[in-house]
């Protein structure tokens, strides 16, 4: 291809791509959901493109559903008089790099109720733009425990319990080979006052079964905790991992 052909192609491509005009900008948030653990902190970053000094701009974070004002910054200072009550005392505006258009909001400590869609809104005297992103809140619960109740007809009822999960975890019984075991005869997932889930699942098994495991899995982190028992002969103490 001739050099002048390359130049024309580049010019045409540039003309087709949207680009902010004078004084205009785009607000860009994180490229993937922000994941934060209950009790820890989350940092929600936003930045301007092209790189623009945001010192004199208005910067606001909103929770979208349910709607809530998370943090508001304008005229080079925080304005928290209208901040939603659930965020009071838990937000910090990070502006170390505000002169290059990079801002962020720290939320600490993270609560289950923070799991939501968020909007980062930035406005100059002549232009405004915003970005939306997701905050995924997560918590790993306690190691599960299995309670054994002998039954009739060569059967036993196993009940597995654990506390402190978020979001609602996945429950499963597996055999020695790691294959999914019998469907549970009962399963409950109860939300506690702190927003975390307490879970209980029961299954009836034949005493001729050997090893049975209760698996509780966090769907956000893809991490799981397990308890297992051996039903061969007399049941030894339950172990958990």
UniProtKB/TrEMBL annotation:
Q: Which UniProt keywords apply?
A: Immunoglobulin domain, Membrane, Signal
Ranges for the Ig-like domain?
20-134, 144-230
Under PROSITE patterns, the record lists: IG_LIKE
Q: State the InterPro entries in the record.
A: BTN3A2-like_Ig-C, Ig-like_dom, Ig-like_dom_sf, Ig-like_fold, Ig_sub, Ig_V-set, IgSF_BTN/MOG
Point out the signal peptide segment: 1-23
Q: What broad class describes the main subcellular location of this protein?
A: membrane
A Pfam family (short name) is V-set
The subcellular localization recorded is: Membrane
Gene3D superfamilies registered for this protein in UniProt: Immunoglobulins
- At the top level, the lineage of the source is Eukaryota
Would you tell me the protein name for this molecule? Answer: Butyrophilin-like protein 2
Biological source species: Erinaceus europaeus (Western European hedgehog)
